[in-house]
UniProtKB/TrEMBL annotation:
Keyword Glycosyltransferase in annotation: no
Protein's organism: Dyella mobilis
NCBIfam families linked to this entry: rplD_bact
Gene3D superfamilies named among the record's database cross-references: 3.40.1370.10
InterPro entries linked: Ribosomal_uL4, Ribosomal_uL4-like, Ribosomal_uL4_dom_sf
Keyword Transcription regulation assigned: no
Keywords, comma-separated and alphabetical: Ribonucleoprotein, Ribosomal protein, RNA-binding, rRNA-binding
Protein name: Large ribosomal subunit protein uL4
Protein family membership: Belongs to the universal ribosomal protein uL4 family.
GO cellular component: ribosome
SUPFAM superfamilies named in the record: Ribosomal protein L4
Length: 200
């Protein structure tokens, strides 16, 4: 299939990568797994047995209360937590093949909806926010925009960091969360070739 390149000739790409079927359930699974993998999982609480404190009888035998074990019990203020949280991994296993199919499906849907734009290059050589805003206006993109370059240089990152709705990624860092969270995705020709090679 052919992709329109803004200001240049069309680009021939694989039908599988940019014209595949939209698989919503798989995309949802991959996005959830990607976000889960980013969780720190460092929450930790102390259980009753891990708290410091005496275990001696803290009331006299007669009059109630003495048969309770100690003040570290969860029912007392300052006591341990009943089901104490411990550090854990939230990582979910996703097969490499399924991950690539999900990325292809997202790119295909973006292309069908006209939300994927291809350019020869961004043409940002100086770290100027004004130049980046002018470039976005020229491309006629709005909302949350994702720029994908094969080798995003420092000038490109610096020019875009003060624009809250703009995100810049290197092609090797392309991920499902960034793709589904963008209203428009703008890719360079070199980035398209690199992504196509990865997903083929």
């Amino acid at each position: 299939m052919e992709l329109n390149v803004i200001g240049a000739k069309s680009l021939s790409v694989s039908d599988d990568v940019f014209g595949g079927e939209f698989k919503q359930a798989l995309i949802h699974q991959v996005v959830v797994a990607y976000q889960a993998g980013g969780r720190a999982g460092t929450k930790a609480q102390l259980s009753r047995g891990e708290l410091s404190g005496t275990t001696k009888k803290f009331k006299k035998q007669k009059g109630g209360g003495a048969r309770h074990g100690d003040y570290r019990a969860p029912i007392f203020v300052g006591g341990g937590v009943t089901f104490a949280a411990k550090p854990r991994s939230y990582e979910q296993k996703v097969n490499r093949k399924a991950y690539r199919v999900a990325i292809r499906s997202i790119l295909s849907e973006l292309n069908r909806q006209g939300r994927l734009k291809i350019v020869e290059s961004f043409g940002i050589d100086a770290p100027k926010t004004k130049a980046m805003i002018a470039k976005l206006a020229e491309l006629q993109v709005s909302g949350r925009v994702l720029l994908v370059s094969e080798d995003a240089n420092e000038a490109l990152f610096l020019a875009s960091r003060n624009i809250p709705y703009l995100h810049v990624l290197d092609s090797v860092a392309l991920n499902p969360v960034s793709l589904v969270g963008s209203d428009y995705v703008v890719m360079t020709v070199d980035a398209v070739k690199k992504v196509e090679e990865w997903l083929a």
